Design the sequence.
């Protein structure tokens, strides 16, 4: 058997080369500075790295990749470190942080486009667009921290996919540095360009395995003057589906999120300043937005749609937001679901999608299936219902001290995932709706994906990154 023996000095020579070619503010080995980059939001993945590089330009990224290829140094790219599948956490690789590349390069209100560097936070892009009367519609609870490079690399979804699509739908083109240091320049805001393969799309959802995204040209939209938000008490996931169909008669519908009462209770108990909008509890809640030109139009559409939903029994109760503050408070209930679950003991967190009409069946079957794996476990499904995307989290059974049983419960992660993913497969869904594969679902992808798709993905990986230096542990 051939053994790949590398001279011992290779890694340290490579690290020295990187340090000598970058400016002092573009790298660090200071453990205190690096520490927050090695642990992720839920404390699930912990990493290590010999060096963090923080290039300030595309040219510097190119230089880094040339050196890494030369010395066979592996790299993990990182944006805001909010990813939920462990793809941004290095395990001994060089950590390439985009945090020094945050410039807005251009904003064009004729073309409705904005060109930004990959390390710009999503919120900074939304704000830049808004300042010029435009909307950049991607919206996630992590938007103050996550970056455009991370959003593109995970093909982020969020709450506005229903109307505007995922990150893949919101981009004209990208600039990306290849493993050998060459720069692919797809930065253009042409709405039509049929000149062969759309290479930009290779980098979207690739989780940093095919190149480092350094910049992107994104699509902007007219900013709606008014958003009419409402929260609706409903009976069940079936009622949520009926309500969605009913509200979809209006093309102003821009958001449709759903959460169960168990989730509402968690948020009200554990997150400060949260308030139940209703005087009575309901089994489930839907939160919806209508985007309109004027406030009067928003109210008229919402009252018409929700009034008839109440009359027909699809909706049990409705609270209409009366101000922007109240609208924010309503959505915060849903957005704080993940934070609240930190207080609910160990939780197996799945992010699945099924065809919309199959969501009620998914809940019935999954809720039953997980009980056969861990009796009395507590499934909580919530999320982007309007996209068929459910964050299906399965919390450990209740006990006096949840902390004690947490580690033992989490050993069931794979068995619980398998039980749920079998149902997702049977219903024609996907085991990753918007968070990606990373390290978390790598074996699930290998087991469940179409072999032709997997083979094509592996061919692309080898073609673009023959030495597998870019995020080599994840995805495939
Ligand atoms: C509270 C909370 C709510 C969330 N809500 C949502 C949601 O509604 N919808 C959703 O889709 N996600 C959600 N997420 C997940 C996360 O915010 C997204 O996946 C986001 O797109 C990650 O961006 P980031 O900059 O933090 O990327 P990171 O976490 O830093 O990286 C994510 C992946 O992209 C790669 N990467 C990062 N930057 C680059 C680059 N420039 N070039 C190449 N590869 C790169 C990394 O190597 C890694 O594989 C949520 C997370 C949290 C903590």
Sequence:
């Amino acid at each position: 058997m051939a053994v790949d023996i590398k001279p011992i000095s290779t890694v340290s020579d490579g690290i020295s080369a990187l340090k000598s070619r970058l400016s002092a503010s573009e790298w660090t080995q200071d453990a205190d500075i690096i520490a927050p980059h090695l642990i992720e939001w839920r404390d699930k993945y912990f990493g290590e790295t010999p060096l963090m590089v923080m290039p300030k330009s595309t040219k510097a990224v190119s230089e880094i990749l040339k050196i890494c290829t030369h010395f066979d140094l592996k790299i993990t790219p990182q944006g805001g470190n909010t990813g939920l599948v462990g793809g941004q956490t290095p395990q001994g690789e060089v950590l390439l942080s985009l945090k020094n590349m945050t410039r807005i390069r251009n904003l064009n209100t004729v073309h409705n486009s904005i060109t930004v560097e990959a390390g710009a936070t999503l919120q900074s892009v939304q704000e830049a667009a808004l300042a010029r009367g435009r909307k950049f519609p991607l919206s996630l609870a992590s938007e103050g921290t996550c970056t455009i490079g991370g959003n593109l690399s995970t093909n982020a979804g969020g709450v506005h996919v229903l109307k505007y699509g995922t990150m893949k739908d919101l981009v004209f083109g990208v600039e990306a540095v290849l493993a050998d240091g060459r720069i692919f320049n797809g930065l253009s805001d042409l709405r039509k360009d049929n000149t062969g393969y759309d290479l930009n799309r290779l980098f979207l959802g690739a989780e940093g395995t095919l190149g480092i995204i350094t910049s992107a040209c994104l699509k902007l939209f007219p900013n709606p003057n008014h958003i009419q938000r409402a929260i609706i008490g409903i009976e069940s996931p079936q009622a949520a589906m009926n309500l969605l169909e009913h509200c979809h008669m209006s093309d102003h519908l821009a958001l449709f999120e759903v959460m169960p009462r168990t989730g509402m209770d968690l948020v009200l108990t554990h997150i400060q300043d949260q308030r139940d909008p209703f005087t009575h509890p309901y089994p489930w809640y839907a939160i919806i937005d209508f985007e309109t030109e004027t406030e009067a139009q928003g109210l008229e559409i919402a009252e018409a749609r929700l009034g008839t939903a109440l009359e027909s029994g699809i909706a049990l109760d409705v609270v209409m937001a009366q101000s922007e503050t109240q609208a924010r408070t309503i959505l915060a209930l849903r957005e704080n679901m993940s934070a609240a679950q930190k207080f609910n003991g160990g939780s197996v967190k799945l992010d699945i999608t099924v065809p919309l009409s199959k969501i009620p069946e998914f809940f019935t079957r999954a809720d039953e299936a997980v009980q056969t794996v861990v009796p009395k476990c507590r499934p909580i499904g919530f999320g982007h219902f309007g996209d068929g995307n459910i964050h299906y989290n399965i919390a450990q059974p209740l006990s006096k001290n949840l902390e004690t049983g947490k580690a033992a419960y989490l050993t069931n992660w794979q068995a619980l995932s398998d039980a749920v993913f079998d149902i997702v497969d049977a219903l024609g869904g996907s085991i990753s709706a918007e968070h990606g594969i990373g390290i978390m679902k790598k074996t699930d992808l290998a087991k469940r994906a179409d072999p032709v798709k997997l083979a094509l993905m592996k061919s692309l990986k080898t073609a673009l990154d023959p030495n597998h230096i870019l995020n080599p542990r994840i995805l495939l």
Remarks:
- The chain has four domains: 9-99, 104-222, 226-338, 344-435.
- The mean pLDDT is 95.
- The two ends are 24 Å apart (CA to CA).
- Residues 41, 76-84, 87-88, 98, 118, 140-142, 146-147, 149-151, 153-154, 156-158, 207-208, 212-213, 338, 434-435, 438, 471 surround flavin-adenine dinucleotide (CB under 6 Å).
